[in-house]
Amino acid sequence: MPTSRIPLSVLDLVPRSQGMTAATAIEESVTLAREVDELGYRRFWMAEHHGSEAFMSSATALLLGHVAHATDRIRLGSGGVMLPNHSPLMVAEYYGTLATIHGDRFDLGLGRAPGTDPMTAAALSRSSGHLPDFASEVADLQGYLGAPRSGARVRALPGEGTEVPLWMLGSSTGGAQVAAALGLPFSFASHFAPDQLAEALAIYRDRFRADAATAQVDRPTTMAGVNVLVAPTQEEADHLFTTAQLMAIRIRSGQPAPLDPPVDSLAAVVPTELLPLAHAHQSVKMVGTPDTVVEQLESFAGSHELDELIVTTYTYDPQMRRRSYRMLADAWGMSSASPVEIAS
């Protein structure tokens, strides 16, 4: 890979298309993970969602264990675990077990959004998610995964001593504040909530504490999410991307459903008043030919001084999703012949 280009990673939500079973959606994501592993992407992260018709990614730890058996070198992780939905001890046990079985291949990305609707969040017995409580739970989780503590009455076994690397996720300035205070790497969800990207990165960099007891990196370390779709022509890329736009409209208008087939014209199938939802939700997008997308990704990464990009792609046909990642890897200059650096 050219030294001027930062690493690319993959975010997957186990999308399910119309007519597809949940089991098929899961196996398609495993197939994708196997392919991006071979292509040379740095990480394959899976994001927690509950009660979704479109995303089969509610049990991320189970899915990542399944993916680990199908891949060899790519780092795997949560992008993320919504910590207020779980006890820190249980998360430490789950991811500590994965690290015990598969070794140092896992990242633990942590968020505080519900990842679902209010009623489902209540059924998960969700905690507050308020910043002080959240920061305390992150510190507890890190403690469970760290070196054995003298006199500790509560221990994550297995998990203790695995030191699974933590990442803080955010779609607003709140996550940036926690990441900075705890000295953790920070990944911003600009693929679906781009409005506060610049402000969040500025807060994170300005307030970052390398001397925090919980610090895992010695300098501000950043990643951001991007919607990507690569195809041989701009016309085909735009056509295939209408599936992602329809998905965004469904999510924002409360009409959940599996992914729709692409359409020739959004205006022909979507009420005029809903059309802006597609663009507001996915304004950080790079859609087009390989050279076009690479140029846009480089510009985006450079303007925000990012250390890494994590890209996500939605297509009705999973083969088109895999093709997009293949074309991007080739245009980015990835090498499938040498192992990917797996530093956290």
Describe the overall structure.
There is one protein chain. The chain has a single domain (8-332), classed as Luciferase-like domain (TIM Barrel), CATH 3.20.20.30. Mean pLDDT is 93; it is low at 337-344. Strand 3 (75-82), helix 3 (88-102) and strand 4 (106-111) form a beta-alpha-beta unit. It has helices at residues 22-39, 60-70, 88-102, 118-123, 131-145, 173-182, 197-207, 234-253, 266-269, 275-281, 290-303, 318-332; strands at 8-12, 43-46, 75-82, 106-111, 166-170, 186-188, 222-230, 285-288, 308-312. Helix 1 crosses helix 2 and helix 2 packs parallel to helix 3. It has twelve helices and nine strands. It has 344 residues and is of the alpha/beta class.
Q: Major β-sheet, in short?
A: 8 strands, parallel, barrel
CATH domain fold name: TIM Barrel
Q: Tell me roughly what share of residues is in helical segments.
A: 40-55%
Low-confidence stretches: 337-344
CATH superfamily: Luciferase-like domain
The rounded distance between the terminal residues' Cα atoms is: 18 Å
Second rung of CATH, namely the architecture: Alpha-Beta Barrel
Strands of the widest sheet, in order across it, are 1-2-3-4-5-6-7-9
Order of helices and strands: EHEHEHEHHEHEHEHHHEHEH
GO molecular function, one term: monooxygenase activity
GO cellular component, one term: cytosol
Keywords: Monooxygenase, Oxidoreductase
Family: To bacterial alkanal monooxygenase alpha and beta chains.
For the structure shown, list the relevant keywords.
TIM Barrel; 42% helix; 344 residues; globular; 12 helices; disordered C terminus; alpha/beta
